[in-house]
Amino acid sequence: MIRRLAVVLFVGLVPAQASAVINQAVEDACQSEYLTYCFGMKIPSEPLRACFRKNMYKLSLGCAKALLDNGEATKADMVRYLAATGKKK
User: Fold this and answer.
1) Host domain of residue 45
2) 81 in a structural domain
3) Helix, strand, or coil (residue 46)
4) pLDDT value of residue 67
5) Do 85 and 57 form a contact (C-beta atoms < 8 A)?
6) Residue 23: HSE in the Cβ half-sphere, 13 Å Cα cutoff
7) Does residue 3 form part of some domain?
């Protein structure tokens, strides 16, 4: 169950727009964030999405990129993330 990460969203992306498919890149890149911030939450679930949104600026760059590449975050979300964290794409 831990290996199957939920589809998670950045702030600003409406959950109804989320892809129902969890790709391997998201699973691999965001596993640490799931275990650190949202462990034990049902996968997938709205509470888990909310947990990832709450911790948006704590996500690793790799997780953020995987979410963007999988369509779970928008380019605007990534711009806000990079501005807030000071990380470089």
Assistant:
1) 15-85
2) yes
3) helix
4) 82
5) yes
6) 13
7) no
- Alpha helix locations (H) across 1-89? 24-37, 46-54, 61-69, 75-85
What is the chain's percent helix, strand, coil content, to nearest 5? 55, 0, 45
Q: What is the pTM assigned to this prediction?
A: 0.72
Q: Compute how many other C-beta atoms are within 10 angstroms of the C-beta atom of residue 37.
A: 15
Number of folded domains in the chain?
1
Contacts of 72 (CB under 8 A, 6+ apart): 7, 8, 9, 10, 13, 18, 19, 26
Return d(Cα 83, Cα 22) in angstroms, integer. 26
pLDDT for 29-68, tens place per residue? 999 999 999 999 887 778 877 888 899 899 999 999 998 8
The contacts found for 16-21 with CB under 8 angstroms, 24 or more apart, are 18/49, 18/71, 18/72, 19/70, 19/71, 19/72, 21/70
